[in-house]
């Protein structure tokens, strides 16, 4: 006779792509006697947990659902339990349920079931729009739709690093973006500071992102990746359009970072409570000239270092009597040491919105990387 976890796993594998949660609810109700199972999906702004099936969105930070999401832990509030739904560090949302009589065993198994659900939601996303639609609190612009489809995710983790990125204005972003990939104990990270408005900016960023991926997947060195993308953008726009880009390659075994600063976004290192600007030699933005040559530079991260990269939409965010600026940015980064990377980028962009008193006028991207040390 199959054990209960196997039964749940089989139900998820056999479920239609757009009915994963309904099939899960039916199965765990039968196997564990739980009731009121619901999936709360985090929205694009990282500000609301949106129920997939029924109920009201949760936006209050102190709510048990948000505590479960932020701390990635099982939370019990009265007769209701909350467990994070995460896959390889990508935080998708929270599973809410009311346990049956065997609450302790249910709690242990539901943590594993939530992880199963996270992986199945990622696999199902290629075959249905349901979860992408449900995670929206309003309609995305077409440019924003393109930008979100470009992203590799918003968070990633493994024993040697934790990584997160976020875009604002989330529902109307058009040019700024980021990309990452890991291969052979190396982490590749790109932050793009796009130029222009609307679809023009989105198309330019998409071209550069795909050119960089094409070069990376061909096994080219970091400087050659920049050169190939530079040529691709120039071939399309003949120097009339370009974009500032920072390319990074981290050796996860040593902490040595290679960087190509193509007119880059700003980079800082938080080390032992001190914020250090990481100066690099600025080189030409991608697409400015036909045959630009790029030279990688290197520096070393220490275990426990936090790397922050932001576009100019962060430190140049303004209001009538001033701009956010570097001093405020340094103070904020210093305060993030106790926050996970996704919480840190969400808090930074939330602080910017509070500073300007609403939506940001310019795109802003923030990426946070923690290097915890070489893998064992």
Shape summary: globular
Helix content: 25-40%
Largest sheet: 6 strands, antiparallel
Question: Mean pLDDT, rounded to whole units?
Answer: 93
Give the termini distance in whole angstroms: 38 Å
SS element count, helices: 11
Quickly give the structural class: alpha+beta
Please provide the count of β strands. Answer: 18
In percent, how much strand structure appears in the residues?
Answer: 25-35%
Report the uncertain regions. none
What's the assembly state of these chains?
Answer: single chain
Series of H and E elements: HHEEHEEEHHHEEEEHHEEEEEEHEEHHE
The side-by-side strand order for the widest beta sheet comes to: 6-7-18-15-12-13
> Radius of gyration over alpha carbons?
22 Å
Folded structure, characterized:
This protein is α+β, with helices and mostly antiparallel strands and 376 residues long. The protein is built from eleven helices and 18 strands. A hairpin with a 2-residue loop joins strand 12 (266-271) and strand 13. Helix 2 (20-32) runs antiparallel to helix 4 (103-124) and helix 6 (142-150) runs parallel beside helix 7. It is globular. The mean pLDDT is 93.
Explain briefly what this protein structure is.
It contains eleven helices and 18 strands. It has about 375 residues and is an alpha+beta fold.
Topology (elements, then pairings):
Layout: H1 4-14, H2 20-32, E1 35-42, E2 49-51, H3 64-71, E3 75-77, E4 80-87, E5 90-98, H4 103-124, H5 130-134, H6 142-150, E6 155-158, E7 161-168, E8 177-183, E9 186-193, H7 198-217, H8 222-237, E10 244-251, E11 256-262, E12 266-271, E13 274-277, E14 297-300, E15 305-310, H9 312-315, E16 318-319, E17 322-323, H10 325-335, H11 341-356, E18 364-371
Antiparallel strand pairs: 1-2, 1-5, 3-4, 4-5, 6-7, 7-18, 8-9, 9-10, 10-11, 11-14, 12-13, 12-15, 15-18, 16-17
